[in-house]
Amino acid sequence: MPRRIRRALLGAALSAAATASLLAGSAGTAHAAPTVYAVHLSWLTIEATQDNNSYDEAYIKVNGATVWGPHDVPENSPQNIGVSLPTFYYDSDHTLTVEAWDRDPGRDDRIGYFRLGANPALGGQAIQLRGNDGVYDIFFYVERAN
Ligand SMILES: [Ca+2]
Ligand SMILES: [Ca+2]
Q: Taking the chain, what is the end-to-end CA distance rounded to the nearest angstrom?
């Protein structure tokens, strides 16, 4: 089991125990442990580049940190962003934000973002991000991790 999940589960167990002891003898109910989700980013396809040429210097951020790229990505050429990426975890008390960007010599252009929250759709899915004339498709997979 990955350390992050183990730590999350341990934290949840400890806080449930603490809540249970606080509530002992009272009529309250213990807080349910949050659900943990695993998100695998698998593919990026640029349908329309943001730059006015045949490729973008695309990169992906998760919760504000760059996790892939920048890489030169031609239009309509799928790039496997899952090759060297870790799986990203979040729990139902938090969100996971994925952003797609194009790097430029000056200011970078954000194409768009999506956010997963408390009750994400599970399984494989695709989302289209559009912004600043760029059109990016991101394919990803979400599953429960606890
Ligand atoms: Ca650009
Ligand atoms: Ca660029």
A: 10
* Ligand 2 center from residue 89 Cα (angstroms): 29
Domain boundaries, the chain: 1-33, 34-144
Looking only at the bridges linking them, the beta strands covering 36-48 and 134-144 are antiparallel
Distance 130 CA to ligand 1 centre (A): 13
Q: Tens digit of pLDDT for each residue in 25-60?
A: 444 556 789 999 999 999 999 999 999 999 999 999
pTM for the whole thing? Answer: 0.78
Residue 81 CA to ligand 1 centre (angstroms): 20
| 85-121 tens-digit pLDDT | 999 999 999 999 999 999 999 999 999 999 999 999 9
Question: CB–CB of 110/129 below 8 Å?
Answer: no
Q: Which two tokens stand for residue 48?
A: 């329309």
In this structure, which CATH number among 3.10.100.10, 3.30.70.890, 2.60.40.150, 3.30.360.10 belongs to the domain 34-144?
Answer: 2.60.40.150
